[in-house]
Amino acid sequence: GAGVSQSPSNKVTEKGKDVELRCDPISGHTALYWYRQSLGQGLEFLIYFQGNSAPDKSGLPSDRFSAERTGGSVSTLTIQRTQQEDSAVYLCASSLTDRIYTEAFFGQGTRLTVV
Amino acid sequence: GNSVTQMEGPVTLSEEAFLTINCTYTATGYPSLFWYVQYPGEGLQLLLKATKADDKGSNKGFEATYRKETTSFHLEKGSVQVSDSAVYFCALSGGYSTLTFGKGTMLLVSP
Q: Is A72 in CB contact (< 8 Å) with chain B?
């Protein structure tokens, strides 16, 4: 597609439920990133995929969070047993390579509200 | 680890005023530096970047110079417009190829 696509754009869920957030990166982009944007907290790195390499999961806040990337394209971020502190905007980005000066393109984000 | 510190907002200016948003960083090695902008209701987009010391990134009238001696990458614009109202994020990319962001600075420009 023309840009990074994320779905759903908004998600309201009850505390304790599992949620799945989807990211469709730009076609041909080998690097994919997930970030979390909380009010007043900037952007928090969650996980990074690059090609067929093992993902960098160092930013995942707990074992309730996991992500996968199928076929080097679409990625799904799963949050199990959601908590109120998980409420945030979850942003996905992709870039053509993993070279440090390559521009990352962001999706519009999924706004998750846990009630 | 890597970190980015930028001035807190909101920054409120009148149209045609001069803008400076300060950004300093901590990183090992030689990171690349970026400014991203998030307009209301839109996703983040790259505004400008600099990949080595003394480089100046520029776009849409905005400029920032990579100052290694002061570990800074301040964003400037000589004459802001109402349409520049947005949240601006300073970021760096270091050895792990991930972007580390500051907390963002909201800019509000009034006519």
A: no
